[in-house]
Design goal:
This protein is an alpha/beta fold. It has 2 domains: 21-275, 3-Layer(aba) Sandwich (Aspartate Aminotransferase, domain 2), CATH 3.40.640; 277-389, Aspartate Aminotransferase, domain 1. Helices cover 40% and strands 14% of the residues. The protein has helices at residues 21-34, 44-64, 78-89, 104-117, 134-141, 163-173, 192-195, 259-275, 277-296, 325-336, 348-354, 373-389, and strands at residues 8-9, 72-75, 95-99, 120-124, 147-151, 176-180, 199-203, 215-219, 301-303, 315-320, 338-339, 341-343, 362-366. The strands form 3 sheets. The chain has a 7-stranded mixed β-sheet, sandwiched between helices. Helix 4 links the parallel strand 3 (95-99) and strand 4 (120-124). The longest helix is centred in the N-terminal third of the chain and has 21 residues, at 44-64. The radius of gyration is 21 Å and the shape is globular. It starts with 7 loop residues before the first strand and ends with a helix. It binds pyridoxal-5'-phosphate. Residues 13-14, 77-79, 103, 105, 151, 155, 180, 182-183, 203, 215 line the site of pyridoxal-5'-phosphate. It is an enzyme of class 2 (transferase). InterPro entries: Aminotrans_V_dom (IPR000192), Cys_dSase-rel_unknwn_funct (IPR010969), Cysteine_dSase (IPR016454), PyrdxlP-dep_Trfase (IPR015424), PyrdxlP-dep_Trfase_major (IPR015421), PyrdxlP-dep_Trfase_small (IPR015422). Its EC number is 2.8.1.7.
């Protein structure tokens, strides 16, 4: 086996690492020399905090084409955003359609709501390429489900769903679309209005390159009438009133904000703006193409799914014949310093659909703008060495 090189982090679908340097500087500056709460202080420093958080909201609104920063809600992570949307939107008796590609942050709230308030949940079929079967969806839409909740890009296969076409189909049944964009935002251009979705949830700490503890829920105009407040508390506004304010974003943001996280997120999105989302998409597509082409040359590799690079993000799953995924992952880490993620990736139904559930899932490689073609060469060489040694 080769000597381990430097640490090579390829688990960006879990959380991105490294972060751009300005992210650390901004969070650090907040913690050391700003320090006051968001929306609760009229001092000079308090205004600086407010300006930064407002600017961060505007950056998210512009990046995702939301139409107004007021409809950008800051949360703790992708899971928190999805819980806010699902618990705030879903009512007893609702019918919800979803996919087998969902993360547990969708599957578990839906399962909970099924049991607690009596909703019904149906799963739409997918085709061989891991994309929603549009003719099956059409059939399911005849029952006029209230909500379609789907992931934009699978965190197991990287496959992107044809969201624009799906949105076109839901128009007649007036089904609301909640998009889990955890693996697409920050990796490719995402526009709420172009995609035609109603609500979008994403973390701030994956593709957006911000700190852990940040997340976003964004929605089109009018959705605030349909999404209830699910947590209540102080907002620093209308404090003499007993009810949670209806104004945005206060309706969904009780309690103190993660100010160091939001300072970091603001700097992270500025970094993405400077780099250009098209550059990031192109770079990550090239890395994906390079890895997939190389894997095809290693006979012991079993890809989880083959699909065209333009239909996926930089997330690739595979197994090595005769090795369980945990051992494959450990060998890459111990001998080559390559950090991947083995297992079910919190998406058990995705692995069921791929036929990889029984063997404990797959090993997943996932990229960020900081990965390089040299790193992919090294990864392929390392995989080939493991393959020839077992
Ligand atoms: C598709 C998808 N949805 C939701 C989540 C949950 O995001 P978070 O880890 O920020 O809670 C993840 C995280 O891996 C994900 O991959």
């Amino acid at each position: 086996m080769m000597e381990p090189k430097k640490r090579l982090y390829l688990d960006n679908a879990a959380t991105s690492f490294p972060k751009p340097e300005p992210v650390h500087l901004a969070s650090d500056r907040y913690s050391r020399s700003v320090g006051c709460a968001v929306g609760r202080s009229a001092t000079g420093k308090g205004q600086e905090v407010q300006r930064t958080v407002d600017r961060c909201r505007l950056r998210v609104s512009n990046l995702l084409d939301i139409g107004s920063p007021d409809r950008v809600v800051f949360t703790l992570n992708g899971t928190d955003s999805l819980n806010l949307a699902l618990h705030g939107l879903v009512k007893p008796g609702d019918h919800v359609v979803t996919t087998h590609w969902e993360h547990n942050s969708v599957l578990r709230p839906l399962n909970f709501l099924e049991k607690q308030i009596g909703i019904s949940v149906q799963f739409v079929n997918s085709d061989e390429a891991g994309r929603v079967d549009l003719s099956h969806l059409k059939t399911l839409l005849q029952q006029r489900p209230r909500i379609l909740c789907l992931t934009h890009a699978s965190n197991v296969t990287g496959v992107l769903q044809p969201v624009e076409q799906i949105a076109e189909l839901t128009r007649e049944s007036q089904t609301l679309i909640l998009l889990d964009a955890a693996q697409s935002v920050g990796h490719l251009p995402v526009s709420l209005s172009k995609l035609g979705v109603d609500i979008l949830a994403c973390p701030g700490h994956k593709g957006l390159l911000g700190p852990l503890g940040t997340g976003v829920l964004a929605f089109r105009e009018g959705m605030e009438e349909l999404i209830d407040s699910v947590r209540q508390g102080g907002t620093g506004t209308t404090s003499n009133e007993a009810e949670q304010p209806d104004s945005l974003p206060e309706k969904y943001e009780p309690g103190n904000h993660n100010a160091p996280g939001l300072f970091g997120l603001d700097a992270a999105i500025e970094w993405i703006e400077d780099k250009g989302i098209d550059w990031i998409r192109n770079h990550e597509q090239n890395l994906t193409e390079q890895l997939c082409a190389g894997l095809r040359g290693i006979p012991q590799i079993e890809p989880a799914l083959e699909t065209e690079t333009q239909n996926r993000v930089g997330v690739v799953s595979c197994n090595l014949k005769s090795l369980d995924p945990q051992t494959f992952c450990s060998l890459l880490d111990e001998h080559f310093g390559i950090e991947t993620r083995a297992g079910l990736h919190c998406a058990p139904k995705a692995h069921q659909a791929l036929g990889t559930l029984e063997r404990g899932g797959t090993v997943r490689f996932s990229f960020s703008p900081f990965n390089t073609t040299e790193e992919i060469d090294y990864t392929l060489e390392s995989i080939a060495q493991v393959a020839s040694a077992v």
